[in-house]
Hints:
Elements: E1 13-15, E2 22-24, H1 25-30, H2 40-44, H3 50-57, H4 60-68, H5 74-92
Antiparallel strand pairs: 1-2
Amino acid sequence: MKNPITPPEDSHQIRCRKLGHQISFSYCRIENLNIPCSKILECWADHFNAAEYLKFELTPDEWEKAFETAPKPKISTLLDLIEHAKKVKENASR
Length: 94
C-alpha cells in the first residue's frame, strides 16, 4: 500500500530526533530557515509520502538546499551562534 501524499494534520505529532520532543509536520516543513529539516523525509516516511509531497511543493532550489547540500558541522553552527550572541550583547550595552 502506498502512503498518501497529503500531510497529516498538526494534531498528528511525532518525536523529533533533533529536538527530542513531539512536533508536527508543519514545523518540520519550515524548521531550517523556512526550508524543510534535512531529516524530514526519513522521519515522516512511515506516516505519509513526504518525498512526493515536497517534490510537488518545493522549487528545485529549495529541494537542493534541503536535501542535496551538506549540512554545516555542528561546531560551525555553535560558533556562529556564539558570535551572534556576542554582537547582540555588544549592541544592547551601547
